[in-house]
Amino acid sequence: VAKHIQTYQDKEALTDTFLQVQKATDVDSALMVILQHLQKHFDRARIYLYDPNINSLIGHLQYGPELMRDFKSKIYPIDQDAYSLQTFSADHPRIYQTNTPEHEGRMQAVGTQNVENPKVVSEWADFPLTQYSGDQQVIIGKISVDNNITFIPRSKDLLNRQMVLISQATIAIHHATLQKSMTAQVAQRTQQLSATNRVLEEKDKLLSALQEVSNRSFSYLDQDEILDNFGKRIIQTGVFRSLMIAFVDHETETIEVV
Fold first, then answer.
1. How far apart are CA 115 and CA 147, in angstroms?
2. Number of Cβ within a 10 Å radius of residue 144
3. What CA–CA distance (Å, rounded) separates 64 from 80?
4. For residue range 74-114, what is the model confidence (pLDDT) as tens digits?
5. What is the largest distance, in Å, between two alpha-carbon atoms of the chain?
6. 3-class DSSP assignment, residue 248
């Protein structure tokens, strides 16, 4: 009965957190709601975002007591972290323990010394944030939780029940990435259209000036007056800062600047 009640309470909490995530105004707010929910079951919760350009996880947000220093924006190369490699090889959370040879290797890889009590074996778990594009797995990031303060073991069932919420983190990050990409594309396209519009406006001004010069040229009989009026009208369009008019003499194969 107690287990059934606990499971029911977990589902209620998940539903409430899910609704809060949907109401969040930005991706970081949504992710913080998820971390706050997870921290109720664990001591601390952290989220890392994946940077494909350097094949690394980047520290992004964390929640709970005794937070890691210099976590924000810290780089964790995946190929130097056996735990991350294992995490992304599965589609479910994995539990790891400290004070193991594997853990010591990880601490050295990220430049951190293990200052925890060597007689205590603490646990943490990684939730992979991934999605599939066709048959290709795309890494989004990961969420880590630990019990390094209370040292209370957590069950796999508890971890698996959080996966519904973890999927919301993946969706939130993915949507934010798409939004950022779309915004950049719209800005680039707007810039291109603005440049095109400026070119068209200049062409219109130039064509109008040429048409006006052509119409007025018939009112002048003197060549110098025609050329002088032509040059002034072209400059007045604002398309060019200066103008040079020259005649080509095909017989002598020379050019005369007038």
1. 15
2. 22
3. 26
4. 999 998 888 888 899 887 888 887 665 555 554 454 444 44
5. 110
6. strand
